[in-house]
Amino acid sequence: MIVFTGAWICDPRSGVVGERDLLVDGRVIKDIGAPGCFRSLAGAIVVDARGKWIVPGLVDVHVHLREPGFEWKETIETGAEAAAWGGFTTILCMPNTKPVNDHAEISRFIIERANGLGGARVLPIGAVSMGLEGKELALLAEQREAGCVAFSDDGEPIYNAGMMRRALEWSKMLGVPICCHEEDKTLSCGGCMNESALSLRMGLRGMPKVAEEVMIARDIELARTTGAHVHICHVSSGRGVELIRRAKNDQIHITAEVAPHHLVLTEESVRGYDTNAKMSPPLREQFECDALIAGLADGTIDCVASDHAPHHWDAKEVEFDKAAFGILGVQTTLPIMLELVRGGRVPRERAIDAMSSAPAKAFGLEGTGSLAPGARADICIIDPSKEWRLSKETILSKSRNTPFLDHDFTGQAETVLVEGSFRKGAPQSADAPGNTPGGRAPGGQEASAKETEANARKQDARKQGTAKQSARNGTNLQGSVL
């Protein structure tokens, strides 16, 4: 057993907030009690966590792992390890792989591939339509049985309203949400940044907010009609937030997420034609950031999701309008949210809820997102004052596409446990033989020599991959509130 003492503990689901001690027994959380209440336990490892925050393991419901098919961008292994480093214990991966995750075999491959890798837990999201083409409904029941926890056509909106309605009827029967990338591409017309005066000055085709908002409105009405659960991905406009707020007031089953970059970066980041600031939906104006932060703070937006989208350097080192959409996110989500907390923009408890309990609840992930006795020992211990820099050396992803490269952050996940197994930073105080990163700490069990050797091979492989990456020169963080 392990006892964490002296920390500020926050469990949004059970309402426990304040200085407490936490007892972990094997793979589960045993108890939470007053400071010092577990001191007399014989044989327990005691970890001094004074000055730290202990929260439920973070949950990211929107991650692109690229495997199978695009392993030069990211793999399940590197993505899961980067996520664990960022404080995440569970991540949900999108189906835009090659082949597309539109049938059970791919879902089972992802789950089996992720098991035992030593990073965050990986759960697949299956495709709504075959090949993400929007023409033929995928075998949703088969995918659900194989382990999919939601369905989505990811970056492809489901244009056919009849197909979307049928998909929602199926998803309601299967008890899972459909995650929607809301974009009417007949309105966005191949745009590459926010439609504004800036896009005109830069000579770039803009993506109007209405392209997102009309699809949000449509899917809200389909959710109303079917009674199914629609999850709105990466909301980027204040009007979108207002539509979601009204839908929730009407008791429609809608949940929503916001990406951290849409909270702290504006379209000004694009001014230097920095392709690492190109994403879909695009960065908007400052007043839209403010509306998104307000919607997150009041609970209209349920959760924060990284939309982690790794790309090889050659997909970004091109003209802006030809560059790929998307940036890395799993290692920067937590520190960005901590900055919003320090600035008074989002309450501390709400920020923690949005990254842990709320996404777990929205996607029905049992035993996750809670520190209640009997829950999985998925734990994130945060050092809120840790100063660090996001550099090529600290990025664990195979890709480097982020506007935050060489940016200084304050706050980091110091220790991460997945079902009681240390995935990052086993505390020195826990000096039992098994307490090394990747080792099985609960109960003082020793990490096997095979497991230690495997971890060493992973580190060597990552270093070799990093050496092959081409470094980008400079970043543009105009518009950042960090």
SSE inventory with pairings:
Layout: E1 2-11, E2 16-25, E3 28-33, E4 45-48, E5 53-56, E6 58-63, H1 76-85, E7 88-93, H2 104-114, E8 121-124, H3 140-146, E9 151-152, H4 161-174, E10 178-180, H5 185-188, E11 193-194, H6 197-202, E12 206-207, H7 210-226, E13 230-232, H8 238-249, E14 254-258, H9 260-264, H10 286-297, E15 303-304, H11 333-342, H12 348-355, H13 357-362, E16 379-390, E17 407-418, E18 421-424, H14 449-468
Parallel strand pairs: 1-4, 1-5, 6-7, 7-8, 9-10, 10-13, 11-12, 13-14, 14-15
Antiparallel strand pairs: 1-2, 2-3, 5-16, 16-17, 17-18
Notable characteristics:
single chain; 482 residues; alpha/beta; Urease, subunit C, domain 1; TIM Barrel; 2 domains; five-stranded parallel β-sheet; 18 strands; globular; disordered C terminus
Walkthrough of the structure:
The chain is α/β, with parallel strands linked by helices and 482 residues long. The chain folds into two domains: 2-54 and 378-386 and 407-468, Urease, subunit C, domain 1; 58-362, Metal-dependent hydrolases (TIM Barrel). Helix content is 29%, strand content 20%. It has helices at residues 76-85, 104-114, 140-146, 161-174, 185-188, 197-202, 210-226, 238-249, 260-264, 286-297, 333-342, 348-355, 357-362, 449-468; strands spanning 2-11, 16-25, 28-33, 45-48, 53-56, 58-63, 88-93, 121-124, 151-152, 178-180, 193-194, 206-207, 230-232, 254-258, 303-304, 379-390, 407-418, 421-424. Strands 1, 2, 3, 4, 5, 16, 17 and 18 form an eight-stranded mixed β-sheet that branches. Helix 8 (238-249) links the parallel strand 13 (230-232) and strand 14. Helix 4 (161-174) crosses helix 7, helix 7 runs parallel beside helix 8 and helix 8 runs parallel beside helix 10. It is globular and about 65 Å long. The chain starts with a strand and ends in a 14-residue tail after the last helix. Mean pLDDT is 90; it is low at 429-482.
